[in-house]
Structure formats: structure tokens, C-alpha cells
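yo

u said u wanted the structure for the complex thing, so here. seqs first:
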Amino acid sequence: MIVTPVFPDPTLTDAFYERLYTLPDGERIRTCLQCGSCSGVCPYGYVMEYPPGRMIAALRADVFHRVMQSESVWMCISCYACADVCPSKIPLTLGLMTRAKEDLLLAGKVPAELQIALENSQRYGNVLGQSPRKRADWTRLLGADLDVPVMGRNKPAADVLWFVGDYGSYHPRVQKVSEALARVLKALDVDFGILGPDEVSDGDSQRLAGERGLFEMLAERNGRTFQKYRFNRIITTDPHAYNAFKNEYPALGFSYPVMHHTQFLAERLAQLQPMIKRPLKAKVTFHDPCYLGRANGEYEAPRQLLAAILDTELLEMAHSRATSICCGGGGGGMWMDGFHWERAHTRTSEWRVREAAGAGAEILAVACPYEPPRFEDAVKSAREVAGLLVRDIAELLIDAMEPV
Amino acid sequence: MNIVVPIKFVPDLVEELTIDDSGAALDTAWMRMILNEFDDHAIEQAILLKEAGAGSVTVVAPDTEGVDDALFAAAAKGADRLIKLTGNFENDVRSHALARVFANAVKTLRPELILTGVQAHNDLDGAIGARLAELLGMPYIGYISGVSLAQNKAKVRKEYPGGLIAEMEMTLPGVIGVQAASQPQRYVPISKVRQAMKTARIEEMPAAELESAGGPAVSRMFRPEVGARAEMIEGDAGDVAARLVELFREQGIL
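structre next:
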């Protein structure tokens, strides 16, 4: 077994090393083979001065301060590709990357774009800096036939608590996904409620961007809100929220059964199937979200739904399932577009839409609120893919269900 | 050096503003207050000076909604003393009245340098720093973006229209109206704010009586009037371009 230096890098705090090695499987960092798989699979590895494998080498050579002086770790989009490929099962994303970001953040070294998103989360409870009071206003855009109950107003108990999230609540493009899911839930006669102004950001991407304290504050607020109401499970269209509720909130004392909307709907396929009146004839491919797929192992539910919606075979991209390429929005990447662009001069989302078009797809199906805006923007800048449509599975489903 | 930073709060424009029944003030029912951005820069500038070796920083704030959070955030950045002025600041306080309250409080702190935001979006008269200097018998320079200290002098950078920047020197004690700190404001991680809440102490100081005399009084507030001068050009790219060229010709631009 290879052992890290006896005298750790003096420029780093003891807390850094303690937090790094006391993680579940943190000790595994000492078993790195330096095989380089992580650096090779990292979507931004080629622009990092210290891609993941070199970071570990620097840690062991007692020169990790060089990594911290570089901008390498801020190129990390927490996509889990490195952690997934590692033969030694080193918790690279959760451990090394997140801990390094935490230390930089505590030292006040935060990219300016990221700072704005974090300050918005602190003050308004959402990264977009919108009025917390208007969190349920998207429901006003819906037709009078579609009532979305807000638990704090008139519905203290429901079978399903739908956590809408920042983008589903405020982002004009993603609000359309929320509307689609609301219609599907109504069609299925699901007893559900949303939190509206009681809800704040799930905090998962802020956590992976290094702001652990902010994550805990947001989680405590959501957790206390959850305790006010009666429900049997949480559903969400956001894989990051799903990941947080499933893997992070329990340690803070808030433990609830949670399902991604594709899982919840796939469970109800028998009920859904007869409602699909207009199967989709288009050529469709599916982008596996990092925090549904790699981080949580769910690859089938979205594909089961797509098989039911499509009249054609689902097309698979060159990178699919565990090798899916991140849209670039994870780990704070959603709020660091300029920072990443300045250094990489490309976006992983552009790479991804080219792959989708290369697979022959007319529609790129997605299942994460970061993706409709990111991929639609990528389609605008990658001209050769002009015409590629980006749709959440909930949107495709409602299109196939509703009469023309 | 003893640096004092008086700060104030303004309506947060994330929430919509409504005019109350009197027609001369904002409806406070749904209003949320936020630290005046220029005062935030003044705090940052004070902390930068402290880090460069200049003494201690005291932040003074009227007791309004959100004041504790703002003071603890200042402590997390490095402020040494936090003072909350107690009194009735519920209704919109005019800048001249607030300047008098600040002057009375700040006098007792014997400051050598006072940094405060040069203006605030809820009055835009930029009076607080200047009035404060007058009341304390100190010199004042406003619209400053960058301060450095040497012995009993402050060297400041003042912005003028047209991209001109002047460097000036002021003998202390004095008051500086800060437009921007010499570096952007730092991020304060939540864990540091929480730590400050445990370790820092907010001192309370009764504010002097608020006298409303002086300064402009608002007689009426109204929303911007909507004009109907915009023309939306419909059609395909060719039609739109042709119409634009026509319009530019009419206006004599082409």
C-alpha cells in the first residue's frame, strides 16, 4: 500500500486532511495506482493543469498547494465520471474535489460568477436571485383546469410531496417541464402538493461547489418544512435534489423516501400506457443525467418511459449510461459558464448535442432541470446541429398523451 | 487606526415595490430590506485597510430588519466591533436625520477615518457622508473607488465622468463616501457567519432623537409613465431588415 507523506503540506489546514480521509472510503485515496483513467475520462481534464490523477500525485508528493494555487479544481463539474471509472473506488468527486473546493471557498477564493449564485442562495433561498414569495407563481401560468395545490395554503397532507426546485419554479424554460409534470400527475390522479414559498433550493450543487455550510442551512430549512406536513414520499424532476434527499439529508436528520419523476412514472407504466394515444414517431436519444445515472445507478426508468412513448427504437449516443457526458452544469458549473468558457473555449453541452445529432436524433430527451436551457443554448451555438429539439421526458409524455 | 463604517438599509428590489395610500411613501407591508450596496463596499474597503495593517473596524447600523445578519456578516469578514443603534427606524428615515443620528453615535467612538456608502438607491442625494463630515467638522470626499493609508493621511482615487480618475490626499480624521472598494466584495461562507454569530457581540446604543428637519421631502411618488413609442417590426428577416433600413433613412442615420 502506498502511503501519503508523514508530514502533510503545511499550507493546508488539518481540517482539510481530516475531512478528506475520514469520509466513507476516504482512506482509499492512499491506494491510487496512478493509472490515469480519471484524468482521461474527465470532460475538462484536458484543460486542467492538475487533472484528477495529477491532483492525487500532488497530494502524495506533498505539493498539493500547487493544485490549490491553480484553477484546476474549479473546472470540476462534479460529474462523477472519475469516481465511476476509478479501479480503486476512490471517492474523487465527493472527497478530493469537493474538499478542495471547500478549502478554497473558506479561504475566500471563489470565482465571481459562483459567488453570485451562492449569495443568492443565502439571501433568497434560490440560486436565481428571485423573490422567495413568488416561488409558486409558475402555477398561475397554468390553465384554470390545472390546479396545483400548495401544501402551506390549503393542503397539509398529500400522498406525494413534489419538490419543484429552483429551476422548475423560476426558469421560464424549465417551468414548462413543471407544467408537463403537473398535467401528467393530474392525468394519473396522483394526490400531490408542492411547497411553494416554503421551499428553498435543495443545496446539492452548492455543496458540490464547496459551500457545505450553505448546503446545511438550506437542508435544515427544507427539512423543517418537510416536518410540517404529512406525505408518503417526495418526488422531484431534479436529479441533484433527488441525490441530496436520498444520500445527504438523512445524515442531517431528514429521512424520507424519494423518487425521481422518471422512477415514479415508470412505476405507473401500466396506468400510463393506455393513455398514450399518440406515440412519438421521431428519432430520439436520451442523455443520462450524472446524478440519476452514475451517482445513483438509475438508467432504466427513463428508458422504460421512452419505450412506452416512442413508436421507434431509442437511439443511444456513443457515450451513454455510465459513460454519459455531463451537460456541464454540475458542481456549480451551472453558474460558472463564463469561467469555464474562458478556459476551455467550448462547453460539454455543445459536445453532447453534437453527439446526439451524430446518433441521428431529432429530439434529445432529458431528465434534469439544468438540461433544457443548457442543451438548447448549445444547439444555438453548435450550428451543425440546428433543429435538434430538447425535451424533458415529462414533456414528451404529455405530448404523447394529450389529443391534438 | 480607528475606522468606523456607518451603514444603512434600502428596499430590496427583488420584491415589487408598491406605493402606500398616502401616495408619498412605499408600502412597507411586503417590503424587504437589504444592506445598501455602497455601504457593503465601504465595509469591504475598511476590511481591506485593516488587512493592510490599519487598526480596527467598527460597523454602526440603525436597528432595521436584517441588521443582525448584516452585522454578523461584517464580523465574519473581519470587523472588530458591531454597534446597533436602537430607536424607531421603521418609517423611511431621511438622510439628513440619519446623518445626525450617525454623527451623535460616531462622535463617541473617536474615529480617525469614516467610510460610508456614497449614496443609496432610495434617496440618491448622497447626503449622509457629506452631512456627517459637516456635523463632525471633518473633511469629506465622495465617489471614491480605492483608499490607501499613510500615517495620518488617506490617499483616495476619485472617479470623474469621461473615464478620468484623480488621486487625492486627505488629512485625517475625515469622511470618505465610497463608490467601490478597491477589490470586489469577498464571499462570506455560511460557516463563518455562523461562527461569528457565536463569537461576535452586537452592542446596542440608543440612537439620538430622529428629527425630520432638513433635506428634501417627498410630496408624491408615482410609477414611471408608460410611453407607446416602440414599434414592433413583424415579418421575416428580409422584411424586418428592409423596414429597419427605411427607418434609419427617415431618421437620417443612413
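The interface with chain B takes residues 105-106, 108, 110, 112, 115, 118-119, 122-124, 129-131, 133, 211-214, 216-217 of chain A (CB under 8 Å). DSSP finds 20 helices and seven strands in chain A.
cya
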